[in-house]
Amino acid sequence: MKIYKQPLLWLISASLILLGCSGDPNAEANKLYSKASLILNDSKRTKDNYSEIFTDYQQAKTLIDEMLLDYPSSNTTVALMSEDIKISGLTLTEFRQMEESLKSLSEAEIDPLATAIVLARNIGIDSLYANYLAEIAVNYKSLDDTEKAFKLLQEAAQVAGKSEENFALRTVSVAFAKLGDFTRAIELLDSSNIPKAIREDWLSDISAQYADKNRIEEAIELTSKISSRDSRVSSWIKIGSSLLTAGNTDLAINFFRTALKENEPLGTQWIADHNKQKIAIRYSESFKFNESIEIIQSIEDKPSRDITLREVAANLAKNGQFGKGIELYNRIESVYERALTLTKIADAHIDIGEKREGVKLLEQALKNAESISDFLYQSFVLSEIVKTLSRADELNLALEIVNKIKIIKYEHVDAALKVDAALKNIVVEYSNVKQFEVAERIVASINDPRQRMFAFASIANAYSDIGNNELAQTYLTKAFYNLKLIDSATTHQIEGLVYLSERYKEMNLELTDSDNLILREITSNVVPVKDLWE
């Protein structure tokens, strides 16, 4: 917004006061106009944040509204309405238009979600703007602010409609479904020009939302309208997965069986195998292990088969069937998947107090990990091993592996961000087991401010779990400080703001003055206060 200065405004305001006389409508109107102008002029000179500027604006607006209401025929009112004079350089129209933007900017200085909205609106790419606005809207729904959520979604829908990128439309449509407005969700897809195949794939996401809300008949009806077999199979799997998560295992199995029946034959073997992978894993989560293993036999794609073997082996171990889990492990070809599988089986041993057996498997997993040629995969597997060791109280071995991860980071600078993510995951695990000193030591090795933000937030969450709100607040403030350091040219600050907003809600904590100062700084970096008056 560009606002143009009126150099003679002070002289005009002073003259109007001198010319006015008590009881005269023109004089009274002049006084109100002059007071409003003086308030805004003072705000220009002395205020450097939107919260204070908005307060001044509201005071000025009250005076102008009073003038317009009480003295509609005064010379000043007529001149202002005809734009012959301005309010501190603003026409009456510009002055009124300023309210909504100032309100949103002032809210951004005290509320992380409001800050995220400002950043989304100024991101410069319509698809990303709409995408993040839709995600933020869902967060407002979780805060029981349904009106705000739908208002943001309407804005997101308008922006997505102008974008050439389709993915934003999908996010907005699913967001409407999450908020319970399935009619609008489907209308949005029907009114778009997206290809039929893509539209039907997205309808499967809406079917899953029906299932999440236990509206099974409507989920079935919508899925039945999908002509593409690939998308229809995907929809049956999503519905079954929602039911399984809700604890309705028997009904979930029926949908998995329907999906499996329609899955053969498909035009692309990889798609068929990928669907089988999802179904087999879901079967194993429902303790239908024989059916899972039978499906595995028919998977031709090696990566899909290894991933399925890994997850089914892990679920067997969780069910106490360690021998069968190891049998499936022995059928895995990828050294990466073998290492992860042993780590998951070890985790199941540790869960039931069999730490010695778990550590033995972790040592074997470590040998597998050391033979992984891709250093990114290797660092991830090593981080998973350390996370599991944290629960086995094997600190020395865990820290030894952490040092291996650090070496990978320093030897492969181009992979530093992903290695920092692995280190963050370790911090989360040590926070969960309340080994705060170890968690702090590992955070010190993380350079990426985004991952440090996540790490500090996980420590805060762990302190909150044990009722230490003072330290929880301290570490959330550390997370906020690192949020400020994230490159504002990326979308990561928006994601961080939404994430930290959720953490504050979960921990039932209020933002500190320091947090608010950071929000103020982030807001003014995106929409500089000085630009308001230029």
Structure notes:
The protein is an all-alpha fold and 534 residues long. It has a domain at 23-84. It is built from 28 helices and no strands. It has helices at residues 9-19, 25-46, 50-70, 75-81, 92-108, 112-121, 126-142, 146-162, 167-178, 182-190, 196-212, 216-224, 229-245, 249-262, 269-285, 289-297, 302-318, 322-329, 335-351, 355-370, 375-390, 395-411, 416-432, 436-443, 449-465, 469-485, 492-507, 513-526. It is globular, with a radius of gyration of 30 Å. The termini are close together. TPR repeats lie at residues 233-266. It comes from Pseudidiomarina maritima. This is Tetratricopeptide repeat protein. Residues 1-27 form the signal peptide. Keywords: Signal, TPR repeat.
Number of strands: 0
Sheet/helix structural class: mainly alpha
User: What's the main sheet like?
Assistant: none
Spell out the helices and strands N to C.
HHHHHHHHHHHHHHHHHHHHHHHHHHHH
First-to-last CA distance: 8 Å
Average pLDDT confidence is 91
InterPro entries: TPR-like_helical_dom_sf, TPR_rpt
Organism: Pseudidiomarina maritima
TPR repeats: 233-266
Keywords: Signal, TPR repeat
